[in-house]
Design goal:
With 304 residues, this protein is α/β, with parallel strands linked by helices. It is 38% helix and 21% strand. The chain has nine helices and twelve strands. Strands 1, 2, 3, 6, 7, 10, 11 and 12 form an eight-stranded mixed beta sheet that branches. The chain has a two-stranded antiparallel sheet with strand order 4-5. It is globular, with a radius of gyration of 21 Å.
Amino acid sequence: MKNFLLLGLTIALLGAQEIKAQEHRFDPPWNNPPESALNFTVPGIDNIPDLYGDIENPQLTVFFAGNQFMVVDDLLASFKKEYPQYERIFVETLPPGILAKQIKGGSITIGNLRLTHKPDIYTASKRAINEMADYFSYTQVYCYNNICLMVPAGNPGNVSTLNDLGKENIRISMPNPQWEGIGEQIKASYKKAGGEQLVKKIMEDKVKDGSTYLTKIHHRESPMRILYNQADAAPVWTSEVVYQKLIGHPVEGIIIPDAYNTNASYVAAKLKKAPHPRAADDFLKFMKSPTAKFIYRKYGFTVD
């Protein structure tokens, strides 16, 4: 009987540990969901964190560079307040390279969902916009950003420089240059700091041994890998560290000196084939407003 009770207690403890292990304390979506009759968000399974708003018959569709997901709540609320005629807005915040392919191809499938929405506005880095210049009728720069290193609170890996990422024991969450523009910019920073040797170490040798993990959607994967102790450092945009700290997640930021850093200019572009050209014009006008600039500053971006 005693052994039976001990076995029961052991099973109960293991069950409790399993439940604890399944907690998704840090999983997105990190934004506030819109009001609805039913919210059926299951962390880690059914959450679709980079699709926002009204998917049916939107009056405005915006494809934002993924690292700007954190501004969406405040930005859309303020835009609707100033332009109340736009009640239904649909936004995607996938990596800009993915959004570009979606624009060119006309559709995207996520899980079992196929989307054929055409954007009115596409925002991305200046380089990415220039590469698709023929698609746009108007462009404007609206904010800037630079790179830093995200590390867990307390910085247990003792990471202080880009060269530290070349150490054998440091696990890195690195944006894949094939998917995300920031990847090439980070590689340029590696080269400035440690030459081709550091680039090869991080992007080839450590990829092979598994200590560099290449993401497909870094603005989601990198914070989660840091928060779940799967990475010791992640090169990210400064705004991403600012946001994770704003929502109380235990991360810190390591500043990268200007000599090794990369600055990005973000451009908003109106599509020549925008389904809602008037709404696009109104949104671009709003993006120049003091209200929009205040919101971007709040989340760690630089504005004029």
